[in-house]
User: Fold this.
Amino acid sequence: MPIYDIDFETMPREGLESIQLRRLQTTIERVYATVPFYKKSFDKAGLKPEDIQSLDDLRRIPFTVKQDLRDNYPYDMFAVPMEQVVRIHASSGTTGKPTVVGYTKRDINTWAELMARSLSAAGATPGDIIHNAFGYGLFTGGLGAHYGAEKLGASVIPVSGGNTKRQITIMKDFKPTILCGTPSYILHLAEVAEEMGVDFHDLAFKSGIFGAEPWTENMRAELEAKLDLKAIDIYGLSEVIGPGVSIECYEEQRGLHVFEDHFIVEVIDPDTLEPVPHGQKGELVFTSITKEAFPVIRYRTKDITSLNPAPCTCGRTHIRMDKPSGRTDDMLIIRGVNVFPSQIESVLMETKQILPHYQLEVDRKENLDTLTVKVEIDEELFSDDIKGLQAMETKISKDIKEYLGVSARVLLVEPKTIQRSQGKAVRVIDKRVI
Ligand code: DLL
Assistant:
């Protein structure tokens, strides 16, 4: 596969690291001079911008967390005057105020470049037609992929999320070759296509670029089989830039290359805040080194993954992060056992006749946590005898206990009982906090 930015994406590590250091120093000088929050946090740590003499010195800089962004809501983390800000996005978050992020003209251009690289890594070329089902709006998915597609020179269909039947007609008639969206919405698209008698094997897709929420390898297998395409994982977050922070390559589909000429990545132990060795899971931390309007320094993402520095057959020298398995704040603690929704997904999808639509309900009864796993099954199976269903529920519940050590009540439900999303799926309903 051709590489969009061959110079930067395949640069030997030494050259890459010297660029990173130069860009880091410039960024630190700028934020120290323009963002009171960073000046205060540096001063408190007894650091001056000129103390950053090597990439290792980054570790001396304090972390930034979501609460810091909330405390500076809406614009106090911006490093440029509003006259230079040409775009604003925000992520809703589940609690509290949204996080507001801004972009200068150059930031928009950087982001478009990163997304053009990402699309290209997923196999897109200027001749491709991109069906962009990421939501357009304050969410960064839609516009991020849109600008990247245009930068690459591909044709983009800005369908956004929703209006699902019309999307299927568009897929049939406009013959898009690349599909973008959240994996949960794409599954819904597949389901509606089936109802409309449209088979993805008759459509023209070669790659799907899916992200914005965790999805397992089992889900990948399901999507690839159903949609007859290569499913590529893309990662990003509004605070860092949006989608296009990292992406898998078409060749390997194993680990997401972080665009290290724009972001310095670390993985830390969320308890000790110390870096963890490569290969070991921890919390992802990013420092942006080229952004103008909204630079972030050592931003703790809460996303959990590990880093893999091994060379990749695609030729990119940029480090890979493992498929994110969840967020530290997604972790459910059920009677003292830690469990992530993605682990439950893995177990569910090992079972035949289970549909990839599930939801976890957590409650507290008589001071004890309870976990109910609702999952849809085949129409046919559902109309089967009740005994068969119960046996299957018991079997899955046993598997969950065996693999994850947590007791769960499994409830097999009729197809289409669980709410479909147009963007990110709501996997957990935690009644303990309502
Ligand atoms: O979700 C940006 C994006 C759009 C990424 C489209 C990929 C595709 P936010 O709304 O700010 O931004 O949410 C960021 O979503 O911290 C992760 O917890 C989660 N996330 C994003 N991509 C992935 C992924 C966009 N590939 C938050 N796997 C992040 C797992 C992901 N989680």
